[in-house]
Amino acid sequence: MNFDTSKELYETAKTIIPGGVSSPVRAIKPFPFYVESADGSKIYDADGNEFIDYCMAYGPAILGHNHPVIKQAIVRQLDKGWLYGTPTELEINLAKRISSFYPSVEMMRFVSSGSEATMSAIRLARGFTKKNKIIKIEGGFHGAHDAVLVKAGSGATTHGEPNSPGIPTDVTKNTLQVPYNDIEAMAKIIEKNKNDLAAVIIEPVLGNIGPVLPEKNYLKELRALTAENDCLLIFDEVITGFRLAPGGAQEYYQIKPDLTTLGKIAGGGMPVGVFGGRKEILELISPSGPVYQAGTFSGSPCSMAAGIAVLDYMKQNRIWETLNKKGDAFRKSLSEIVADKKLNYYVSGIASLFVVFFGEKPTNYQEVLKCDAAGYMEFFKKMLDDGIFLPPSQFETNFISTAHTEEDYEKTIAAFEKNLPKKK
Ligand SMILES: *Cc1c(COP(=O)(O)O)cnc(C)c1O
After folding, report:
1. Reported confidence tier of residue 160, pLDDT bands at 50, 70, 90
2. β partners of residue 322
3. Of ligand 1's atoms, which has the minimum distance to the CA of residue 273?
């Protein structure tokens, strides 16, 4: 494959954009490919190369790229103008749909990104409980703001900076960490801090270090613990939302959190974030209450129109049953390849998420870090050369979409077979 144009673009990009990218996970070494267009399951770069995409914009594109129904909704809205600074009926229509998928989300507010959603949800939890501390899970990623950039997953782990400089210790001292799937550690830290503990924020399935699943009853016990100790439970469903099931992980695992954050799929690929939950909590948000939160682009008409279109399409076509079955079959094929090659690797995943961990089954962040991340990157490059775009890090989840075809899966399976290392 020829990457000359991308290489040249990267040289220029680096001179004017730090690291040549607008978000660190995109900085594939030695240089990223620069995209020209994408359609369905395929993504095309500036040199004319075609890839089957399993990165899928890191989650939003559950119907594939450039979906005609979403596109039509956006184009229709463009004709009427795309930003007003006053309310639209679109916001009500999207909110009603989200609430019908997520009964725990009785009220919600729209923002422009998942980061903004978790930032606002944490502020709201602190305002409601009048307490300061939060607990997050090691390796959990909730966006790129101060309170949550402590032992964070995703790009923060890939680039070796899970704790970012530039964040005052006065802020991070209020962010407590606990390993995933360890209910005893959680119980201890809650007990010790309960007088000043506002919330536990958690990705119910740890999605930003590859999907790591909750062990039996972990989430149920966490729900009970938080309720008993007067701190709120925030489910960050920016990845799992609309993906595991229409009502996300809370429907899949039958847990009712106090607050929920959504994003990614919720805007059909347009920028969006949502935070919502119990009415008595949400009513504290300005102007109905004193907790301040605002945004010029919040409830942006194209994002709302695209969100409505994607939710209606998914519901009408009941995509989950088929898509999740495809996920199961695909993971099974991958597991067989790994077993055939006698690798001690582990294929993890749920619904339409998957990852091949280059190591034994992990249950938390520390165990994920033991995987052979360098070996994964060698594999990643071989796959890219064979026209398959996986996330450029061991510490990210892979996504399938309704646009991926049997032919895509066959090609991908063959490439895994060819490129996974032989047992040393
Ligand atoms: C992507 C992600 C975020 C951040 O969302 P942005 O839209 O990138 O700001 C927050 N939480 C989780 C679980 C995510 O996967």
Report:
1. low
2. none
3. 7
